[in-house]
Design a protein that fits this description.
Layout (H helix, E strand, L loop, with lengths): L9 H13 L6 E7 L17 E7 L3 H11 L5 E5 L4 H7 L2 H8 L4 E5 L4
Length: about 120
Amino acid sequence: MVVDRDPDPTPAVRLAAQLATALDSHACEIRLLHLGTAEELPTIKIPTETQLQFKWVTRTGHAVPGILEEAQSQPSDLIAMATSGRHGLLDAIRGSTTEQILEESPCPILAVHATDK
């Protein structure tokens, strides 16, 4: 699970937890990956009505390589991330972060469209 302040990751965290629960994956660990410092962690309401384990992971570096490195170093069944689509000329040329992850991911992606604030 990839988290950042923008877009708001809460809907993606909630949906990933619902999916794991629906699949009866009670022994599942959901890693909340933030690329940045611990002081920059976003505020997320972690679902408490579940038996799932949530673990915060922080890494430094750029989004795409950081997410892919985490998914490869800690075998992942799914990458869930909030997405707000393309922004600007660079995203139009190279693709959004989600599109770039989708191209190289070692596992399926659950992209949850961020709601407008």
